[in-house]
Design brief:
The protein has about 425 residues and is α+β, with helices and mostly antiparallel strands. It contains 12 helices and 19 strands. Strand 2 and strand 3 form a beta hairpin. The radius of gyration is 26 Å and the shape is elongated.
């Protein structure tokens, strides 16, 4: 029995006897030789079972293995450029842990509804495996950059007494006789914790009850939200471009195999380095109208508008100074032009739309009080938030980056549903 190793480490064991514990991804019967494509979650390796090298029982077991049967395979590692990953396993023993019958997802084409119904099994496919590996790399890069740049991770509540964004997209729940909501964002709480730590971030699931079926929306998604005291809009954009560039370049460096599995053209991603282009909302409206997409000043951009703007630049592009009326109540007004605010969105390149929303928050107690009234928000629920403007208020900024939208862009896939293991959408809560 060889040492149990993971496929990702197999190159270090060339010429040695090893054991792989995993599943049969696919197989090819060549008569006297069986080619078994084995996976263990860390990679894929080809196992070669030759009739002359193994017992009749082992060869028969290899012949009768079915897709996704769980197996323990022992053999010698051999370099072979033709094999997946450049190495193969010359099998001398095989143990079937479970022989799978009638595995539903076969190598043939399946409809998306069927695949979503079987999402718990679809995750095993090479494409889904690659996407979720890249997602994990994105999450690690997010934490690594923030942790190494002086940000403190402070967890914020999932259950909240009030809204942060749009009160019409809240999931409500009973909280021991009181009304509570699933969080849309941890930002308001971040604004409290910067008073203690200066630079903070929260990272977790957020919820939006949007009745949307677009390919860019989930009802439950993960968002990282940095917040910074004494940082203005310009400083916020500088942090965003450094942050996003680090995430992309880290994925390029560490997940080249997965990007190749997705047939991702990485040449565009290689250009994602600071500085990013910056345009005002006014300039974005002008750009849309020049390109023949009629758009009226004062409206918010939808997916078609974001796509056109994003495709006009080689890198992600900042759009700043949106109309105050289309942004959240806490945004700082431009003192020289109060009809616009110190907000900024970052649109991904290649037409993938908004991946970051943020900007400078209002530091004024009087302005925040007025905006709460204008938005018809219950003042009592925001008394603690107003306190932050009573006691040591400072200019501050922050943003939220959506993990799933970022992964959709980096992987260059069509629909956001593939970027999280178990997506929650308007018509999907199973499995």
């Amino acid at each position: 029995m060889g040492e149990w190793v993971y496929i990702k480490d197999i190159a270090a064991y060339e010429g040695k006897q090893v054991t792989i514990k995993g599943w049969l991804y696919n197989s090819t019967d060549k008569g006297k030789v069986q080619f078994l494509l084995l996976r263990d979650g860390t990679g894929v390796v080809q196992g070669v079972v030759s009739r002359k090298d193994v017992s009749s029982q082992v060869f028969s077991d290899a012949q009768h293995l079915t897709q996704e049967s769980s197996v323990i395979v022992t053999g010698q590692v051999r370099a072979d450029k033709r094999a997946p990953g450049g190495y193969e396993l010359l099998v001398n023993n095989l143990q079937t842990v479970q022989l799978t019958q009638d595995y539903p997802i076969t190598p043939k084409e399946h409809g998306i509804a069927f695949l979503m119904e079987n999402r718990h099994l679809w995750l095993r496919s090479s494409r889904q495996h690659a996407i979720l590996r890249i997602r994990a790399e994105v999450v690690k890069a997010i934490r690594d950059w923030l942790d190494s740049h002086g940000f403190v991770n402070v967890d914020t509540p999932i259950l909240t007494p009030s809204s942060c964004e749009d009160s019409t997209t809240l999931f409500g729940t009973d909280y021991f006789g009181e009304q509570a909501y699933l969080t849309q964002s941890g930002q308001l709480y971040n604004e409290a914790t910067i008073g203690a730590f200066g630079k903070v971030y929260c990272f977790g699931p957020t919820f939006r009850a949007e009745k949307s079926k677009t390919r860019r929306h989930l009802t439950e998604f993960w968002m990282v939200e940095p917040e910074m005291a004494y940082v203005d809009l310009e400083g916020c954009m500088e942090v965003e471009e450094q942050f996003v560039s680090y995430i992309v370049q880290t994925v390029l460096q560490n997940r080249a195999v997965e990007l190749e599995a997705l047939d991702r053209d990485t040449s565009r991603l290689e250009k994602v380095v600071p500085p990013f282009p910056r345009i005002t909302y006014d300039e974005a409206v002008e750009l849309l109208n020049k390109k023949g997409l009629a758009f009226e000043w004062g409206n918010d951009f939808g997916a078609p508008h974001e796509t056109v703007i994003g495709e006009s630049f080689e890198k992600p592009v900042f759009i700043h100074h949106y109309p105050t009326a289309v942004k959240a109540f806490y945004m700082e007004e431009d003192p020289s032009r109060p009809e616009v605010c110190l907000s900024v969105d970052l649109l991904a390149a290649e037409g993938y739309g908004e991946i970051i929303g943020g900007g400078q928050r209002t530091a004024s107690y009087e302005l925040l009080e007025r905006r709460i009234k204008e938005h018809n928000l219950p003042r009592q629920a925001y008394e603690w938030y107003l306190d932050l403007r009573r006691y040591g208020s400072v200019p501050h900024s922050g943003f939220g980056l959506g993990v799933e939208r970022t992964v959709t862009w980096i992987c260059r896939i069509h629909h956001i549903r593939e970027t999280i293991a178990f997506p929650r959408m308007l018509d999907r809560i199973y499995p």
